[in-house]
Amino acid sequence: MIWLVVLVIILMAAAEAPGLVKKKKWRELAAFCLIMVVGTVLSLGSVLRLPWAGFPTALTLALYGPLADWLQQALAVK
To answer: How many domains does the chain have?
Structure first.
């Protein structure tokens, strides 16, 4: 499964990066690389079942969970 994640990352980079370099869009290339590195680390962490790999999901639930609960209560048909 690890090889599949790595293969997808390589294919995505091979599809996007040359166009950014050719058009000399260095800031976009830097942002693309940063996002790809973060995504790769999180994807590999998830595949390897590392304990910190679920952090983004836990953070999202912690931030938006109360809002979702409030909306469910506010929009509930009584």
So the answer is: 1
Cα–Cα distance list, 16 to 25, 29, 32, 65 (Å): 11, 9, 9, 35
Q: Residue 62 is part of which domain span?
A: 2-75
Q: Which residues contact 9 (CB under 8 A, 6 or more apart)?
A: 36, 39, 40, 43
Q: How many CB atoms lie within 10 A of CB 40?
A: 17
HSE value, Cβ hemisphere, 13 Å, CA-based, for 37: 6
3-state helix, strand, coil in the chain (%, to 5): 85, 0, 15
Task: Read off the pLDDT of each residue in 41-49 and give the average, rounded to a whole number.
Answer: 88
The model's pTM is 0.68
Determine the 3-state secondary structure of 25 from DSSP. Answer: coil
Which tokens is 17 given?
A: 């990066």
